[in-house]
Amino acid sequence: MKMKIGIVCYPTFGGSGVLATELGIALSDKGYEVHFITYEQPVRLNQAFHPNIYFHEVKVPTYPLFDFPPYETALASAMVNVIVNQNLDILHLHYAIPHASAAYFARQILKKTGRDIPFITTLHGTDITLVGRDPTYAPVVTFSINESDAITAVSENLKQETLRSFKIEKDIHVIPNFVDIKRFHQTDKEHFKQMLAPDGERILVHVSNFRAVKRVKDVIKIFEKIRQEVPSKLLMIGDGPDRQASEDLARSLGVYDDVRFLGKQEQISEILSIADLFILPSETESFGLSALEAMACSVPLISTNAGGLPEINIEGETGYLSDVGDIASMSQHAIHILSNDDRLQHFKKAAIAQARHFEKQRIIPMYEKLYCEVIAAYKLEKEAV
User: Fold this and answer.
1) Which CATH number belongs to the domain containing residue 163 in this structure?
2) 3-state helix, strand, coil in the chain (%, to 5)
3) Which runs of E-coded beta strand occur in the chain?
4) d(CA 185, CA 294)
């Protein structure tokens, strides 16, 4: 059965948008027709043309009455139009807020026309652990998740966190994030490395949206301690609210000349190919997709033990885990890995071996199976009415 699948997501560099886009690309490569519904084209769709992928822009008209244009209403209307006009079989929502509630709204409209389809909600992290817990959103989040025909979470930790925080009435399927090993793998970029580290310095990398939850300033503090023991350079990839504060901290600690703030980058795999260590000191991390992509490029990981990170980072094998805010521990572990060539190569080999457990060929069939089960169950339910 070659399904027509609608994917609703945020189009940004964040983990939920990246996973949704990579999933859509993988499904289109298998012959499925995939329709993205969001307010602008997802960033990773810009890298190549995919004949089975369609993009539907959600346009929110401005009006003087609205201080905040009603995106959720515009999104629900866009869902209705795409479902009807493209004859979709299923809708897959990434990040509960506001996509799940908009889908419920769209479903009520469609029921009046006799044309309705099931929808799946995938929980990614802050839609549960941070934003979703806010009393402003919690009742709607709980209701719309429970109205979903199926629920998935990207890690076991996130599943348990959701069950603790919300009164969920359905099973949550754990389908982990995945990585495309064909795209994310170590390639020969020695000329690039020579430009950045002409004296053979180790290269450290951090990738995030530079929000407070990522604890980006901790990366600078860790690097400052590493640099005292191991000649190193640091590449900071991404942008966000804490970028300026991180740049200021790098200057005050005297390490700014060895740090490059590269901003948002699309060709992440090329940068990861020259890296020796990935630093992720997040306060919470439902899975850590950026870390997995680094590991696929043979880069070991220094991270916190928050959220789902212990599910991918194996202590003492692919890297090390520390408590949130423990700068000293993360620094010492990094120095331990970087100070010995043979030890570093051992960790690099373990990192790629672990990443292969999350290769997309292993994970995509889980979504295909769930889609088929949900569609079949939905059809039976409608026939029984």
Assistant:
1) 3.40.50.2000
2) 50, 15, 35
3) 4-8, 33-38, 53-57, 90-94, 119-123, 150-153, 172-174, 202-207, 232-237, 259-263, 277-280, 301-304, 319-322
4) 9
Question: Residue 2: its pLDDT value, please?
Answer: 86
Q: Domain check: are 220 and 197 in the same one? A: yes
Indicate if 57 and 155 belong to the same structural domain.
yes
Instruction: Tell me which H or E stretch contains 196.
Output: helix 190-196
Q: Which domain holds residue 207?
A: 190-358
Same domain, 208 and 329: yes
Question: What's 214's DSSP letter?
Answer: G
Of 43-57, 203-217, 242-256, 283-297, the least confident: 43-57
- Regarding whether 252 and 110 lie in a shared domain, the answer is no
Asked if pLDDT for residue 350 goes beyond 80, the answer is: yes
Residues 134 and 202 in one domain: no
Nearest to 276 by CA among 204, 360, 211, 373: 204
Q: How confident is the model at residue 133 (pLDDT cuts 50, 70, 90)?
A: low
- Where does residue 93 fall: left (phi above 0), alpha (psi -120 to 50 degrees), or beta otherwise? beta
Q: 217-265 pLDDT, tens per residue?
A: 999 999 999 999 999 999 999 999 999 999 999 999 999 999 999 998 8
Joined tokens for residue 198: 């002409």
Minimal CA–CA distance to 354: which of 305, 278, 304, 300?
300
| CA–centroid distance for 290 within its chain | 7
Are 72 and 35 part of one and the same domain?
yes
For residues 358-363, give the mean pLDDT. 95
